[in-house]
Amino acid sequence: MAHEVVELRVHGVSGASAEALLDHPVVSRVAGDDNAGFYRPRPGYGVSDRPPGFRVEAYRWGALTAGGAVRTLSLLFLLPFMLVNIAVWTRPPTGGSGGIIGPLCRLLAATLTAAFVLSIVGVTVDIVGWQCTPYPPCVRSRGYLGWLADLPLGPRLALLALLPIAALRLLWWLGERSARAFEAFPAERGQDRSSGGEDRIDRPGFWNDALVVQRLRAIHVAVGLGTLDASLLGAQLHIYPTPVAYVLFVAVWFLLAACAVLLCLPARRGEDGSGRGPVDLRGIRTLRRVATGLTVLALLYTAVPLEPQPPHEQLPGYEGAVAALIAVQAALLAVLTATSLHQRRRGHNTASSWLSGLATPVLAAAAVAASYGFAAALVYRVADVLDRGEIPNPARPNLPGAPPLEPPVSYRWAALAGLVAVVVVAATTVWRIVATRRRRRRLAEEVVRRDFPDTPPEALPRRAAVRDVVARAAVAEQLSPAFIVFLVLSLLGVAVVALDLIGVGPSNLSEELVHTDGQATTNLAIATDAGIYVIGLVALGILVLGLLSYRSGDTRRTVAVIWDLGTFWPRTVHPFAPPCYAERAVPELAKRVTALTARGGVILSGHSHGSVLAAATLLQLPAEVLGRVALLTHGSPLHRLYARLCPAFLGDPTLHELGDRIGWRWVNLWRDTDPIGGPLFSAHRPGEPPRTPGPAGTVDRRLRDPRAVVVDPDDTVPPPIDRHWPYHTDRAYEAAVRELAGRLDLTDAPADR
Q: Does pTM surpass 0.90?
């Protein structure tokens, strides 16, 4: 009997339906489950022009990252953690292990957890427990707060301290709930990650990060609890210092120091794959018990009703803790930037990498900015509500009898820096789009002139529309300066926060350094208030976007794109980042391809982000399977995005290695109108000689889009501009499938019966 050849289609982000992937009205699942499954056309329904022995199958994985309200809305809360987790995967290529970039990113991730806990402490323990409840005007007509005023200070603070613990547990629950869909492929013995994320993408077990996440989760929970304990004990030392408080305070700092040391060490495993080694799970369990015990002791000590004088101003030590934490983050970002620049000089192929190797500090700075943006918006909005609508501000005295609610001035800095960053980055983006418009239109004009040389007058408007689409598709490559500006502003913003350590805030800085009058001080205060509103609107906008995603298909696809691109890489930096769907998708695809090759050949067809999953899958296949596999990519961001953004893991050397492994049975289809996909090796036009020597020059196939600018004789409108989707309906796609099927090595494959 003839060998069976299966064209296995993998969709991109936003999750196309199996029916759309297969161009078939009725499909049935042949493997997998509702979260991720393999589908084939149901025999006897619809029309198929495939010859005997040639089957089409689709892998639909979109439900792994979309479909649940909690998963989508949690993007708002997990965004900073997701950004810092991506940062380590964008380091410059050096051919080594990445140096200290991994430990730096893990330490920075721990400070984000501490910042999250501090923001909740600021709302509950500081604003509500310390500043608001002792004042009758603040709790008047608020029964939900009035009962707290009847409690002594110690029990009140201890009770409110349970809310940051609950918030920390919420982060844990969000990650666990989302990861349940991936439990079909747990880590096997000897297949757990062994180098903290700084290894090769083709290593067995690369996508099994369960043990690393378990280790990091324990450390981050300890960091969060330690941050809470330090805040409570620091305040208690100010109220009534005792030897017990000092002992507990020192013990908490030893715990935080131990967490920092553990984060600087890679996650290791024993030779038997059991997870035991220099840093094993038994030590992690000990760390968890110590952190829990210290927290219980800190809460019990805080609950002792030792009544001091009525509290005033802020929770003692809280503002200094926020400023010190941001100063630590500023130092980490500075070292991370310097290290990235150094590795960029040592690296290979960094000239073509996105942001010239600076994507790591840019994403890390974005994580810090998002973290403090949300924290400032949360703390100030709560203080605003409790202040009866009057935003706390040094430039505006409190109303008579009003509670003196004062959030940390560091959050005021964050608001001001956020406003400046939004305005300047937006202006830079607009400038780049306008400044490059003429050049992009000129290059687009050359494209349409070659594709449509003899355009009749009545088709000139359609030709101009195609030119504009081609010009807009090239916008993404022009935005690097905006990200560099953002990095510079972020570094300056977090560095200036160090001024708060010496008691200088925005308004004080205006008075003491610039020697301005009261009006200028008020104007600066108004600017920071505007920054708070802007940050709050951004956070609200993300929340509304998540809600609207269930009413609009286009909005849902936009949210899915952000989610899918942000959760592709394993969680080796922050355990509370959204779970990595590829830890199931890649092993599942590899298992299915291996099973199909036992009966014939497989053409793995990946569209858009599906091409990235396909490439990662082929890099995991054993050598004896690769001879019966071919790769068809279309609308692929493998080079345009991933090779440039993650050059150490999916850079040009990795793509060439992939081509060698499959014997260059690889065709990549791309269009000039596609804003996402592009060529992988050589951007030559049909009929032109390849610009890249060797077999890599034969991979890329450019498709003209649209097919024509004039109306076909048997049609009523011009051919559509397909842009990024679909590709599989193009005749060139079908030709590529048949070509790759003919190049498969099926001599050793068993015949289909």
A: no
